[in-house]
Specification:
35% of the residues lie in helices and 19% in strands. With 226 residues, it is an alpha/beta fold. Helix 2 (51-58) packs parallel to helix 3 and helix 6 packs parallel to helix 8 (207-221). The longest helix is centred in the last third of the chain and has 15 residues, at 154-168. The two termini are 13 Å apart. It binds D-xylitol-5-phosphate and zinc ion. Zinc ion binds next to strand 2.
């Protein structure tokens, strides 16, 4: 059964001087989830925000807080992200040697778990994790920054992940993140994605443009069932 396509705007591309207003506006503009790109300047060459900012934003919206942790190490911070109000936590196997344990910790804290693969990480990295996750995230850019170009060769990885999810018979979301626009969304969904993260493509033009930006991605991602 194909899942409905969800749009998860990444607030990394929002106006950091008015994050609360931006989240409220993108919620009303039709966002399904709010994608929170947490960066520590160690796992990725950029620093964004942490649990205290997420906690401050929690009351702004009821939408799912989908945290993408680009941090190393991970485990010690997981309780803080739970307390901050995150519903889902996605982590990178590249961030440490104990990703299986970290995924179990995320579940023990009552959150949905996800594993994210950098463009250079082979799909086999999820083969021993597929029964531990509620989501697989295929990075279509190298993590750390918004506004980058979509890396075309990740389409084949998306197809490979889709095959693995279907074989598992488990209820797992396939999320794609990086360079998702109305031009790339259709191919990403045709390859098997059902959650689309978009930062620049949603937040460009300011709040008056959010609804049309989200709709343009949604329209492009609406693939005729064949
Ligand atoms: C990159 C982040 C992405 C990024 C998406 O490390 O994980 O979520 O913010 O931004 P766009 O949609 O502009 O590529
Ligand atoms: Zn992300």
């Amino acid at each position: 059964m194909t899942k409905d396509i969800l749009i998860a705007p990444s607030i990394l591309a929002a106006d950091f001087a008015r994050l609360g207003e931006c989240i409220e506006a993108v919620d009303h503009a039709g966002a399904d989830w709010i994608h929170l790109d947490v960066m520590d300047g160690n796992f990725v060459p950029n620093i964004s925000f942490g649990p205290s900012v997420i906690h401050a934003l929690r009351g702004v919206t009821q939408k799912t807080f989908d945290a993408h942790l680009m941090i190393k190490p991970v485990d010690a911070f997981l309780p803080e992200f739970k307390k901050a109000g995150c519903d889902r936590i996605t982590i990178h196997p590249e961030a440490g040697p104990h990703v299986h344990r970290s995924l179990g910790l995320i579940h023990s804290l009552g959150m949905k778990s996800g594993v994210a693969l950098n463009p250079g990480t082979p799909v086999e990295a999820i083969d021993n994790l597929i029964d531990m996750v509620d989501l697989v995230l295929v990075m279509s850019v190298n993590p750390g920054f918004g506004g980058q170009s979509f890396i075309e060769n990740q389409l084949e990885k998306i197809r490979s992940v889709r095959r693995r999810i279907n074989l598992s018979g488990r209820d797992i979301r396939l999320q794609v993140d990086g360079g998702v626009t109305p031009e790339t969304a259709r191919r990403v969904v045709e390859a098997g994605a059902d959650v689309l993260v978009a930062g620049t493509a949603v937040f460009k033009g300011g709040a008056p443009a959010y609804a049309a930006n989200i709709q343009a991605i949604r329209d492009s991602a609406t693939v005729d069932p064949t």
